Amino acid sequence: MSQTTTEIIEKLKSLTLLEAAELVSQIEETFGVDASAAVGGAMMMAPMAAGAAATEEAVTEKTSFEVIIENVPEDKRVAVLKVIRALTSLGLREAKELTSGLPKTFKDSASKQEAEEAKQKLEEAGATVKIQ
């Protein structure tokens, strides 16, 4: 390996994930390539191996979300209970238990779309909701 290549590799090793992600974006723009596309051989991967591996972790999109009910005002409790029961198979007692001692996780391992829909319906009913 040449001295220049060794220096580049050492610099790539010291990058943070955010810096590596920025580097990949700049390389894509500069050379008109897509780093996420499959490459026919290791030619493109060799110079970027350390940075690309770190960037792949940073860019991986989250696919599983939690819907957390943070607060339910007393005057909106009945409406929120109806939404909870409509979105789940919970009985009235279980839905009431879910809304006491907040914050509590309403849905675990939900898709992004499912989490957004649940959040929207619960907020329309008066609950304060967040997605993690």
Quick overview of this protein structure:
By secondary structure, this protein is α+β, with helices and mostly antiparallel strands.
Describe this structure as you would to a colleague.
The chain has 132 residues and is α+β, with helices and mostly antiparallel strands. The protein has two domains: 3-59, no CATH class; 65-131, Ribosomal protein L7/L12, C-terminal domain/Adaptor protein ClpS (Ribosomal Protein L30, Chain: A), CATH 3.30.1390.10. The protein has six helices and three strands. It has helices at residues 3-13, 17-31, 45-59, 77-87, 92-98, 112-125, and strands at 65-71, 104-110, 128-131. The chain has a three-stranded antiparallel beta sheet, with helices on one face. Helix 2 (17-31) packs across helix 3. The chain is rod-shaped and about 70 Å long.
